[in-house]
Amino acid sequence: MAAYMSSMICLASREHRAFLIRGNDVVVASKRYVRGLRRKPVNVLIPEDKAEQVVRKERKKKKKGEDDEAEAAAAAAERPKHGGFVKGKTEEQPTAKHAHLSAGRDQVDGLRFERAFPGDKRLARLVSISRSRTFREHQGKILLEGRRLICDALVAGANPQMVFFSTVDRLRELPLDKLRRATLVKVKFEDIKLWSDVVAPQGVIAIFSRPDSSRLNFANTGHSVPLSLICDNVRDPGNLGTILRCAAAAGCNNVLLTKGCVDTWEPKVLRAAMGAHFRLPIYPNLDWDVIENHLPKSVTVHVADSSCGPDRNRQTEDLQVNRSHTPFKAGDYGWISTSHSQSNVCYEDYDSDSDCEAEGLSLPRVDAKLYHESWAQSPTALVIGGETHGLSIESVQLAEKTAGHRLFIPVVPGVDSLNSAMAASILLFEGRKQLLRLRQSRKWNSAEGQFS
């Protein structure tokens, strides 16, 4: 009976175990897993004669493991991390070493320079400076491109702020001793070509502080003559740049620009002037009330007459045979600007019976004179008007006030008036010739600004 009961109990336990396996494997697995965690490792008894050898082996393994970990840490510190965080000395030491090597490599004759990274916004700023007059005036900066123009500015004492160059050889072409305070940035030539305003860039562009003519050093002052140039509403950049170049070549004392002239620091003006900005003083954006302050007290102001009126041929013949002529009214020959600052003055189609004369107003009366006749016999100022609007009434009034003349350049019949830059070059060099001839016969007192 006892044997029968024990067999039944074993059979029931087997069936219960089978039921758990078939119906709920998770419970069986969990019980086995828990039972496995509760197991204790078997203690290994080492014989006494071999215990010391086992201890030495364990120490060697432990020491070798520590050395391997140290080598792995050093290797990991030398390798660049990809998106991971590097702590403490493992990051600082390699960075300092890399910076030292980079600093030694990014130098030219003792001057350190930077390397522009992709998307550098400093390059985009070049466009704002080159194309926006408002930005140049507000920021007080100008943009110069090309070795010759940058060198002229540095020699004259202009203050460089930032220089972009494509190769180190291009940078060495500049006077490096004058670039100590400037930021030097090496960029790709493709980037300079992208932002440059010329077809074939030279690979060097510089940003300067807007120069003050009173603080620049002009080298050719010893060859100048008492001749000033006044640009009256010249709006074409190419014409203004050429006029400035002629003024520098003729040895003018200074150049005065009235309000309405194109910005003298526009890139097209700079290229046409060929460095004239740094060879003689240029005073832009002046009112006519202020212009007289930049001229000598005994100055005589002459205006360039485009001579485009209906009686031009008759006037040319009269002047060439030296016939006596009475002073002409300015409006008779169409050389007065239609733009004006006084709203109640008539400038077009002047007529002696017009309403202007009825109101007691009349245009200035200025004698005409051929350009090769004697007109530069004292400190002289020459006014060149723009081709579109011509001379302003203020310039003619100043000529009348100083007993000046309308300088006339005769051309063959059927040919329109000369370009303003061409007329300026003819008159400036004729004025220089007359003043030099006068200097040889009479002594010029440069301190008092007059001949003695």
TrEMBL record:
This protein's record includes keyword Methyltransferase: yes
BP terms from Gene Ontology: methylation; rRNA processing
Originating species: Echeneis naucrates
Chain positions covered by the region annotation Disordered: 55-104
RNA 2-O ribose methyltransferase substrate binding domain mapped to chain residues: 143-214
One Gene Ontology term of the molecular function aspect: RNA binding
Cellular compartments per GO CC: cytoplasm
PANTHER family: RRNA METHYLTRANSFERASE 3, RRNA METHYLTRANSFERASE 3, MITOCHONDRIAL
Family: Belongs to the class IV-like SAM-binding methyltransferase superfamily. RNA methyltransferase TrmH family.
InterPro entries with a match to the protein in the record: Alpha/beta_knot_MTases, MRM3-like_sub_bind, Ribosomal_eL30-like_sf, rRNA_Methyltransferase, SpoU_MeTrfase, SpoU_subst-bd, tRNA_m1G_MTases_N
Alphabetized Pfam families for the sequence: MRM3-like_sub_bind, SpoU_methylase
UniProt keyword annotations, A-Z: Methyltransferase, rRNA processing, Transferase
Protein name in the entry: RNA 2-O ribose methyltransferase substrate binding domain-containing protein
Tree of life domain: Eukaryota
Gene: mrm3a
